[in-house]
Design brief:
heterodimer, A: about 110 residues, mainly beta, five-stranded antiparallel sheet, 11 strands, B: seven-stranded mixed sheet, four-stranded antiparallel sheet, globular
Chain lengths: ~110, ~120
């Protein structure tokens, strides 16, 4: 049973493009939701927490649909520096489940 | 900016040997975590630690593993008798409160290679 599922990609997009990632989770009692980014062979870094009301941070918008157990991340106006693997993370209590990640490459 | 540190950055060991991976969490944080990431695979939760005891642990965290906070600053992960399949990147993380409410900060990781 996969707790958190993501399309692994890769997504190759030109600079300036808008790209969307999706994630589904299996535990309906999950309590917390995050997007992290991970650069090659580096540690995960928090991008943003995800709330049912949706939240935006600059070019990044995250949405949570609890009924469908679905989380999304939208990146607008992609930059070269956005190239990374994007990890969907779901928490229950003090235990956290990571998706396999979606690879993004932004092309000049 | 305060950060989580981990030592060593790379540990090579022989199968069957014991290893201790060390972490220094951010000083005012209360919750501590260990994760592992086998090359090319997802990050996997191992254990969370609060108030000097294990808070939660995954199925991976069997009797071969133990954690300890031996003093006020270090947080260690011990693997008693390493197996080839323990080769992975091990990340330590800390958070100021329950991570469901906020951010976990990750250390740079220790790459463990078991030969």
């Amino acid at each position: 049973r996969k707790e958190v599922e993501q399309d692994p990609g890769p997504f190759n997009v030109p600079e300036g493009a808008t790209v969307a990632f999706n994630c589904t989770y299996s535990n309906s009692a999950s309590q917390s939701f995050f997007w992290y980014r991970q650069d090659c062979r580096k540690e995960p870094k928090l991008l943003m927490s995800v709330y049912s009301s949706g939240n935006e941070d600059g070019r990044f918008t995250a949405q949570l649909n609890r009924a469908s157990q679905y989380i999304s991340l939208l990146i607008r106006d992609s930059k070269l520096s956005d190239s990374a693997t994007y990890l969907c993370v779901v928490g229950f209590g003090n235990q956290f489940y990571f998706g396999t990640g979606t690879s993004l490459t932004v092309i000049p | 900016e305060p950060e989580v540190t981990q030592t060593p950055s790379h540990q090579v060991t022989q199968m069957g040997q014991e290893v201790i991976l060390r972490c220094v969490p951010i000083s005012n944080h209360l919750y501590f975590y260990w994760y592992r990431q086998i090359l090319g695979q997802k990050v996997e939760f191992l254990v969370s630690f609060y108030n000097n005891e294990i808070s939660e642990k995954s199925e991976i965290f069997d009797d071969q593993f133990s954690v300890e906070r031996p003093d006020g600053s270090n947080f260690t992960l011990k693997i008693r008798s390493t197996k080839l399949e323990d080769s992975a990147m091990y990340f330590c993380a800390s958070s100021p409160g329950l991570a469901v409410l906020g951010t976990q900060y990750f250390g740079p990781g220790t790459r463990l290679t078991v030969l």
